[in-house]
């Protein structure tokens, strides 16, 4: 994997539902599955077909059934009723069963059928993961390209997430020593807020009202990922590196993921400390604060795609460093991260992991496309300690694009991986033996914000979500210009010495 592709997200999926503050969405690029220097569309098509056959991804409906499928299950009356219904399921009070919903029993008997309270929590954490895309400034004409567009005090207000009951405590920035990121080369602006770092996520905590509902003070860490599956082409198998400080341990993780999580440099402005150090410092501070108040505290870490990989690394470190802290990880479309010893260390530390996976999504099948946890069934004398084999961690909630009558069932590599596709399918999932949930609440139009996954009968334009006038505003002279950020939304507050340190 080229780390430059990982740290800069070329295909974000913003998810604000707040009309007065629209987010940005860029029309998706054509996704190909051939190496970067191969231009033949025939080769790409053959490779895509080979991958589909290898992975058994049946993504097309039987000929002639697409229209029937939609008309039989969704009428115009159904659509009208859905448009007039609230977009969120009612919040269930879970204070008496929070440990079970937080994964104390590895979500046994809660996934199939899916417990309504757990569904609501999964969507909540998924929205927090989506926020890392919504607020990310990917505009190549912006001098703050690669930063968060809002300050931490108003992030959730701007994205319409204030009803979820959390407050942002701190932002996290990341860099990498593996192929130093070149994301700034996309910028058309000579000066920038940082030449080395990207905004990669944030730490938050539940407010008093939400704490009462969920039965404990929840500390949240949300990690940003990439969206385009084509960026994972080189990740079918990458080098594994040791992690941790235990003598003789065999836990290993993917080198690029670990570099993003742990890299720092004194010459940078935002990564004098690593993403790991930033996150752990804030987690420790919040745990100590609320434990000193006599409160019960939990840690929930979430992320989509690459963000899911960083979430596991964060959980491994936090569970090793902070005793008796209930720690859960909820990931969406995440790749494999490490080997079986890494998985076993997470289990031994008490980390509970729930992987939400779409059957047709390619990213969760990598790295380790061929050699993976399925080799565990072979005799250890044949496979050895499996130090070089990638292994998934935790329980799995498996979703299927074909279960939704609202989604197209053709081949759409980008759409399969989109976070909004995941949230739509979670919202509609009842069980593997049931049809799509008739009373699903989430607005289906969100699925098409940055891709083309909804059936045409819904008449929702694809890639419809973008900043008004593509970010230009009309000034007092009647000229269309790029707006200036509010001073409070600039990554470093403007003040004495700002210009001197601007590019450090």
TrEMBL record:
Residues 221-369 form the Fungal lipase-type domain. Residues 1-28 are annotated as: Disordered. It is found in: Plastid, Chloroplast. SUPFAM superfamilies: alpha/beta-Hydrolases. GO terms for molecular function: galactolipase activity; phospholipase A1 activity. It comes from the Eukaryota. GO terms for biological process: lipid catabolic process. Keywords: Chloroplast, Hydrolase, Lipid degradation, Lipid metabolism, Plastid, Transit peptide. One of its GO terms (cellular component) is chloroplast. PANTHER family: OS12G0614500 PROTEIN (PTHR31403:SF11), PHOSPHOLIPASE A1-IBETA2, CHLOROPLASTIC (PTHR31403). Belongs to the AB hydrolase superfamily. Lipase family. This is Phospholipase A1-Igamma1, chloroplastic. It comes from Rhodamnia argentea. The lineage of its organism: Eukaryota, Viridiplantae, Streptophyta, Embryophyta, Tracheophyta. The gene is LOC115732666.
